[in-house]
Amino acid sequence: MNAYQTIPARESASVDIAVEAKTFAPVAGRPAQAVLRNVALSVASRSFLVITGPSGCGKSTLLNIVAGLDTDYTGHVRFAASDPGIAFIFQTPRLLPWRTVEQNIALPLPEADPRRAAIPELLARVGLSGAETAYPERLSLGMQRRVAIARGFALEPDILLMDEPFVSLDDPTAQSLRTLVVELWQSRPTTVLFVTHDRPEAIRLATRIVRLGQLTDANSTNRMPTSVLADGPIALTEAERRDPSAVRAEQARFFAEP
Amino acid sequence: MSQARKPASPIRLWQSAPGQVGGWQERLVWSVLSLSVLVALWALAAAIAQNRHGPGPLAVLSVVAHEASTGALWVNLGATLARVTVAFIVAMLIGSAIGLALGRNQTADKFFDSWLILILNLPALVIIALSYVWIGPYEGTAILATAINKIPNVAVQMREGARSLSRDLDEMATVYRLGRWKTFQHVTIPQLAPFFAAAARSGLALVWKIVLVVEALGGHAKGVGHQIFTAFQSFDVPMILAYALAFIVVIQIVEIGLLQPMQARLSRWKR
């Protein structure tokens, strides 16, 4: 039952990411900026990969590249599936305010798709039963996030991208949504790429953490591009992940400076 | 997608929008009240003035009744309403197309912006006069002259709408592979709808005023504008007011019966 105890073998890679360089074009007097350099990741199928790093280091940019929203980079992103289904749970819910909860979730699915039949059950699991015909703006932010999560999982995607989906929520709400996402991921396995700058959150969720950060160069005063600083598995059980002291210990181990 | 289903259990997470409180009944009471006061003031002013050129409400109403009984009222209202409708639809379609094109294409926008400003500032009278000189006194000329007057207005409002389209939702549509048609239907159109509704409501008022000028100048045999122009030549003020009032009523029926419900439907999702 516990997906955290069955971390799949590395060879069944679901996504192969190799970003050699990503540069932001110069804007209004600001010179061109190197954002990412030599970020190479092979993401195991059905793993929960958390990408962490300081704010503004290029985590979201990396996710946009994987999603195909940003194509202006050198390198490649290759998927194991020939036509991978990709879902993206954004930092803000990005729901259509003029469509009901149910319509928002169903929209990405074709009219007669069998996945539509599973929507009521999914709505019940994310705690939105009874809110099917509500418009998103009449719901709280936490509820809107649940709709966005349901939309992502309803697609039964090969790859599920999440970009700090729990920011600006109070702690209990964020915790319950984390538990919800883990439960959904365990019952509908998919490869997750999850971006956060929140270290306890990373330990709570990840089967593997990739830590991004700026390379340091004593000789240069320029902003240095971001690369992979650390990369390793997190082998806690679900019970340990729910225990704050175990999370703290693992966090101290993983994020210890060499 | 089931649309009309009520929530099974009434979770109190959302409430009815503040704009829905009161509703149309309350608005109706206010309209009736304020219009009654206006008519009373008018009657009072006419009674004090006692002038042939300042008829009271009853005098005007009797002209309306007479014109209605001879059938002239319906013929003229019908002719004008038909022109308004066609010119309005043409202007909304062409104006929207131009506005969307300019809002999405920066180069085109930079180039055509000055054209738009030029036409926007061209007096209605000039457009009307030139249309009749160049094309001739046909039915189509009336429609065209009216539509050209309205098109830049619609284009400017729709351009604003196209510029404000959300990039966030666009990205969402791309990742979730909604495709062109679904994106247009569920993402683009709802964002443009408020701009379209605003253009439509301001457009209706503008179009019918211009149509009257067109009818007066274009020498059309039927139409409210023609009637008013004829009455003007003999200083027949009751006749002018009779036709003006009759047409205001028609336009208000369209506004309340058609445009307002349309706008309410479009914005029912708002908090």
List the defining traits of the structure above.
heterodimer, A: 258 residues, alpha/beta, 6-stranded mixed sheet, 9 strands, B: 271 residues, mainly alpha, disordered N terminus
Any overview of this molecule?
- The complex is a heterodimer of chains A (258) and B (271).
- Chain A has helices spanning 59-67, 101-106, 119-125, 141-154, 171-187, 199-205, 238-241, 244-254; strands spanning 13-24, 33-44, 48-52, 74-79, 86-89, 159-163, 191-196, 208-214, 226-233.
- Chain A is built from eight helices and nine strands.
- Chain A is of the alpha/beta class.
- In chain A, strand 6 (159-163), helix 5 (171-187) and strand 7 (191-196) form a beta-alpha-beta unit.
- In chain A, helix 6 (199-205) crosses helix 8.
- By secondary structure, chain B is an all-alpha fold.
- Chain B has helices spanning 23-49, 57-70, 72-104, 106-121, 124-135, 139-163, 167-175, 179-218, 224-233, 237-266.
- Chain B is globular and about 70 Å long.
- Residues 1-21 of chain B have low confidence and may be disordered.
Distance between the termini of chain B: 22 Å
Please report the number of helical segments of chain B: 10
Q: Summarize model confidence as the mean pLDDT of chain B.
A: 87
| Main sheet strand line-up of chain A | 5-6-7-3-8-9
Explain briefly what this protein structure is.
The complex is a heterodimer of chains A (258) and B (271). Chain A has helices at 59-67, 101-106, 119-125, 141-154, 171-187, 199-205, 238-241, 244-254, and strands at residues 13-24, 33-44, 48-52, 74-79, 86-89, 159-163, 191-196, 208-214, 226-233. Chain A has 258 residues and is α/β, with parallel strands linked by helices.
